[in-house]
């Protein structure tokens, strides 16, 4: 089973995303901050990260930047209207971009390529 990491400071958002992704077939790990996600990623292998952009402390793009070139595919969630609205060049490293509120169809579309056997 493929593993996904959901990173969002909003507990309700994590529950909704977890429900959507487990229905899609992912084993889901959750983190409430970029720092918590970094700790999880030090020991866990994931096929995809679904991460909120704005969180207290470090943003989703701060997390992506800290992971470097070996980062798993990274789906950024935000309330911004589009990628340009973020005004941050680091968005170029994002695999997919979804605006909130997240629809099941859109989440499934961008995460479906990462469902498969868990990497060793």
Helix content: 25-40%
Please name the CATH architecture.
3-Layer(aba) Sandwich
Q: What's the total count of β strands? A: 5
Which sequence of strands runs across the widest sheet?
2-1-3-4-5
- Weakly predicted, low-confidence segments: none
Any idea of the CATH topology?
Answer: Rossmann fold
Distance between the termini: 12 Å
Cα Rg: 13 Å
Q: Which properties best describe this structure?
A:
Rossmann fold; 5 helices; 5 strands
Could you provide a short overview of the structure?
By secondary structure, the chain is an alpha/beta fold. Helix content is 35%, strand content 20%. It has helices spanning 11-24, 34-41, 60-67, 83-86, 104-111; strands spanning 3-7, 27-31, 48-52, 74-78, 96-99.
Describe what this molecule looks like in 3D.
The protein has five helices and five strands. It has 120 residues and is of the alpha/beta class. The chain has one domain (3-114): Response regulator (Rossmann fold). It has a five-stranded parallel β-sheet, with helices on both faces. Strand 3, helix 3 (60-67) and strand 4 form a beta-alpha-beta unit. The termini are close together.
């Amino acid at each position: 089973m493929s593993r996904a990491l959901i990173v969002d400071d909003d507990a309700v958002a994590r529950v909704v995303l977890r429900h959507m992704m487990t229905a899609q077939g992912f084993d889901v790990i959750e983190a409430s901050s970029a720092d918590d996600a970094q700790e999880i990623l030090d020991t866990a292998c994931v096929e995809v990260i679904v991460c909120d952009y704005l969180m207290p402390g470090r943003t989703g793009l701060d997390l992506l930047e800290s992971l470097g070139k070996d980062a798993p595919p990274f789906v950024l969630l935000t309330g911004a209207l589009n990628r340009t609205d973020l005004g941050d060049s680091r968005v170029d490293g994002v695999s997919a971009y979804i605006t909130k509120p997240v629809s099941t169809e859109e989440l499934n579309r961008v995460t479906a390529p990462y469902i498969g056997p868990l990497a060793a």
